[in-house]
Amino acid sequence: MTKDHGPSIKNDEKYEALRNEGMSKTKAARIANTPNSGKKGGKAKDYEDRSKQELYDKAKEVGIEGRSKMTKKELIHALRNS
């Protein structure tokens, strides 16, 4: 049975799975709280094909700090490594 991690974690099952894989609490929470974190499909555009604004919006959604000063290349790097 999945433990209830309180209102700050939206998807407790996903959070626990990520923590069991060795992710930090912060990163696991960020991924578990993303609305489409458990969905698959591969229909998203590559980061290189997105506009800087789209990348900025995604960075904001996942909580990347300092995004307003980042270039498109830096946003892509931050999104891939967060």
TrEMBL record:
Residues 1-54 are annotated as: Disordered. Residues 53-79 form the Rho termination factor-like N-terminal domain. One of its GO terms (biological process) is DNA-templated transcription termination. Residues 1-24, 43-54 have a biased composition (Basic and acidic residues). This is Rho termination factor-like protein.
